[in-house]
Amino acid sequence: MYGKPVPYNMAGAQVLARRVNSTAKGKPYTNASATCRPAGPQWQIDTNFPFQIFQSKGWFEFLFEEYHGRWQILFDPSAAPHLNEKRYMGRSIGHWKGDTLVVETKDFRQAIWLDLDGTPLSANGKIVQRIQKIDNGDYNPYLEIITTFFDSTYYVRPWSVVRTFGWQPELTNFLEYNCEEQVGDPNTRSEAGLIRDPE
């Protein structure tokens, strides 16, 4: 955000360099998406596939065409005590601040990749998103999401990105997405062919 470089510490820079170099050599490390596991809210929302948003009094839910991803945001975590365990998408708690939905996500089951290059977030990292519908009246409304990452494992300070998403009602009906066909069925291919990242 604002053209500033990502403030990696040495550990974060080394993880990213290792992942980028492995891809350049044609032997990329396996991330969650390559094994059809939930890849985390930032990866899901940043892909070029459509998503839908559902809202009730007690929760928001983003559904994604890609990976059949599901990102649930609760307003009252005590109403769903069974969701206290760590999750692939983390645990997301939201509240309204004016017309902005503020969401804090933490308690990841494992470290996640924030993008295709392998920008890391440790399992102990935290993501805060500020989600706002922008309607200037002169064109279609859009969604603005400002995301701030907190992770002292890989960064010297918090850092942010901003994304905007257009409203396209013609994409309401998702195309069929078969993860196994996209990446190869993990149940039928040899696990030995996957290169695991040590992080």
Write the SSE topology.
Elements: H1 10-24, H2 41-46, E1 51-55, E2 59-64, E3 70-74, E4 91-97, E5 100-106, E6 112-113, E7 120-121, E8 126-134, E9 142-150, E10 159-166, H3 179-183
Parallel strand pairs: 3-4
Antiparallel strand pairs: 1-2, 2-3, 4-5, 5-8, 6-7, 8-9, 9-10
Can you characterise this structure?
There is one protein chain. This protein is α+β, with helices and mostly antiparallel strands and 199 residues long. Helix content is 13%, strand content 30%. Mean pLDDT is 86; it is low at 188-192. The two termini are 26 Å apart. The strands form two sheets. An eight-stranded mixed beta sheet has the order 1-2-3-4-5-8-9-10. A two-stranded antiparallel sheet has the order 6-7. It has a single domain, classed as Lipocalin, CATH 2.40.128.
Which class best fits the helix and strand makeup?
alpha+beta
Strand proportion, as a percent range, falls in 25-35%
Number of helices: 3
Q: What is the gyration radius calculated from CA atoms?
A: 18 Å
Strand order of the largest sheet: 1-2-3-4-5-8-9-10
What is the total domain count? 1
Helix content: 10-25%
Largest sheet: 8 strands, mixed
**Which CATH class is shown?**
Mainly Beta
Query: What would CATH call the architecture?
Result: Beta Barrel
Supply database-style keywords.
3 helices, eight-stranded mixed β-sheet, two-stranded antiparallel ribbon, 10 strands, Lipocalin, 199 residues, alpha+beta
